Amino acid sequence: MNVAIADHVTFLSRDREAEFEKVFKAHFKGLHAYARTILKDDIMAEEMVQNVFCRLWEKTDHIEIRESVSGYLYRSVYHESLNYIKHLKVRDAYQTYAIHQMEHTNNTAHHLELTELEQRLDCALQELPEKCRTIFQMSRFEELKYHEIADRLELPVKTVENQMGKALRLLRLKLADFLPASFLLFFLS
Known about the structure:
This protein is mostly helical.
């Protein structure tokens, strides 16, 4: 390999490490500033430059530089930076897609659960005795108080209380395997 550096010194000379260090020290600051203008991120700019130098060190025996070392390094940092930006765009696009998919899946699952709950609740309500069902619906869906239900149905408040208790017990039994206990306590209490 004939890699020309600065004044035509090659990496194959006896003092390869010293030559590499000289090139590193001579170009690092300028390359870092250049990468920072592309990436707008000081830390990632430093990492891109370090990646280029690491690759140069690892592949010294396989790289043939046919131009100035400076030109080669700046072009390498440019491409390294662009690859990083492309990586970020792909990552962001995937995250957006994954979030959308998760929301869609969650919305679909939630919708299915809600639909099933509504069906199960309708069936359970239909199985209640008529007076029991009417009192439950007036209490939970029309949000009437027990004395208001009693007045409308011309029943004693105690009867309304007893019928609500019966409706809640029956609904808890019919929906127990479907709903979490905390929801049952809230909805059916």
